[in-house]
Fold this protein.
Amino acid sequence: MVLLSFQSINEQASETVMREMYGSIGNDIASKILDMDKEVKASLSQGSIVSIENEIDLYPTVANKPYLVELDKGNVIVRTIGSPEVTVKVPFNPDINVVPGSSLYSTTGEHVIIYDANGQIMFKNSGVAATLDNQWPEVAIVYPFSMSTIDNTTEIKVDVWDDIEVAKVEYYIDGNYETYKAFPFTWKWDTTTISDGTYTITALAYDRAGHYSYETNTYIVDNGLDLEAPAAEIISPANGSSTDFNPPTIKAVVSDNIAIDNSSIELWLNGVEVTANATITNTTIRKYTIEYIPSTNLSESTHDVELYAEELFYGSGNSLNKNVTLRWNFTIEQIPNTADPIANVNFPLRDDHLVAGEYITVSYDASDTDSGIDYLVINVTYNQSNVSERRENVSTYPTVIYSVSSSWQFLEVYELGKIYTYNVTVYDRAGNSYNPGQMGPFTVLTGEASHLIVNYSDFNTVDEEVEFYIHSSGPDIDIDGMDVTFSQGKLEKIYFGGVLHASPSAVKPLAEVTFANYRVSTTDTSLKLVFSQVFVAADDPLFITIYFKDGTSKNLDITLNPTP
């Protein structure tokens, strides 16, 4: 009997411990459910679809007994597995959407509670599936009717439907988020906080899974109020600033909380209205951009600008709120002008750069270390008549570009047999220009002639030898012969594949060299010609004509100007 008494006391103590611990466990899980619901609502208020997981810390046993945790509508239920039978219910908000019957055992390895993409809270891997929510909610603004005139505080009422539950309805004014409402989803809109005018209201309904739909109505607010004046902002030149860009870009923005009357916009420069020659653009009736570039350079002095605009919907409020006037000034400075621009054509440099069917392309570099580059003109002439021309603007207000290296591709393509010349002219911002000289003429070659590449060595004085390296861009090509014409000096040596072939030491104006089926490979030194004293005077010419086995030929007209 004594033993039974101790056993009875022990069971009573165990039940007490179980109830206390089960209550604590239930409260902890209920708290996590409430936190998840708040997190979901915060996320949904930003328009996102959410999925959340939270781990739960559970004791494997309480009083040496495993236990079960189960979710029910408005309750967390914790009960023993086996005896003594102890059950504790911890209540929470019954409006929170949980999956009834979702449960977990204290002895399982994973204790996780989730908010899934269907908008329901349950235990992970609990053996109970959430109800799938593939249906979008529906919403309709039922009051006031669209295009109604409203004032003071007006209730915006909606009808909503969803197969599971509508979580909230968000309200937007002209696309800007205003507020959200839970059941019954009615919004009391205080229209006295805004100016009179026409507004579009959007009601956006979300279900618990994050699906949404919307409807819009338009209303006319008429409280006899005009609470906000239009505003203006300087874009360029900044007030009190100095610039050497001439003419400058004068630019500003006018805006209003409802709408700007674009017909009221006026821009004045030095007391003269220039609105008719300005460009006025907008993406909404609330905001307009005004840009004006004078047709001629302004004087190097200070210039005054004035901008005026009115709002479109003016009520009976303060008349000072109807319009806006913005005044500012800037100073034009002299452009530095101590250096001229320079430019180079980097492509094409020879005939083999021209490939039939490819787009006409010119690569160049240019610089001006003083005033900066204004623009370049790229000119291509073919067959001495047709012209392709491109103007490339470089420095644009307010950025000065001092150097540029670029390419331009024309829409036209190279044609076989046509002859092309190239000119690039660079202009600096001070009005100076430079042209490095015409490149070409270059011919779009056919057959084996189109693969021949000729390079020559650098030299500085008339006493130096000049070496010409002739090879193929691929495949190997067969040379039949070559004519060389020059006014003085001599052709010293001819090398085939790096091996001396002949030393004709020609002194005649014409040197005729015949090859016996010589094949030019892709090696840079496949064929080398060495000349001496052929470029003694300025503009001394050297003419080389190379003939190929397929009947085509290539002309090289070369003029070098060494330092005497």
Observations:
- The mean pLDDT is 82.
